[in-house]
Specification:
Layout (H helix, E strand, L loop, with lengths): L1 E6 L11 H4 L4 H14 L3 E6 L3 H13 L4 E5 L8 H10 L3 E5 L21 E4 L4 H14 L1
Length: 144
């Protein structure tokens, strides 16, 4: 199984950006958690982060040609604004799990709007970095 873990804007600033909301663990810590989790499950994983919408769309499209089996995606701020990202996920038809570190459902009203949600098989939020591992496990289970 081959997974892509995709992160949108400012996720690279974990540990620095609003630690009371997003925690004190760094982006490097997240990457290590993901790689260890996937290695233990025999899953190939690629992690990618960009602050640029077009880069994320390009990576989603590339996942189709690279025969990726599933995408774990925290679109961050683009969750609430990007029809382009929604269209990219729909276009590739790769099972995608939307992930958010914080509980977006209990935050600002605009954060409750997700353009990408309709193209995803599930959404996990409010579980901190653990949410990524839950999403990976969900995709592994669905592939069985």
């Amino acid at each position: 199984m081959k997974l892509l873990v995709l992160n949108g804007p400012n996720i690279n600033m974990l540990g620095i950006r609003e630690p009371d909301i997003y925690g004190r663990e760094t982006y490097d810590t997240l990457l290590e958690m993901i790689r260890t989790h996937c290695a233990e499950r025999g899953v190939e994983v690629e992690c990618y982060q960009s602050n640029h919408e077009g880069d994320l769309v390009d990576k989603i499209q590339a996942a189709y040609f690279e025969k990726v089996d599933g995408i774990v995606f925290n679109p961050a701020a683009y969750t609430h604004t990007s029809v382009a990202i929604l269209d990219a996920v729909k276009a590739v038809s790769i099972p995608t799990v939307e992930v958010h570190i914080s509980d977006v459902e209990s935050r600002d009203a605009f954060r409750r709007v997700s353009y990408i949600r309709e193209a995803c098989v599930a959404m996990i939020c409010g579980r901190g970095l653990r949410g990524y591992l839950d999403a990976i496990d969900l995709l592994i289970e669905q592939a069985k």
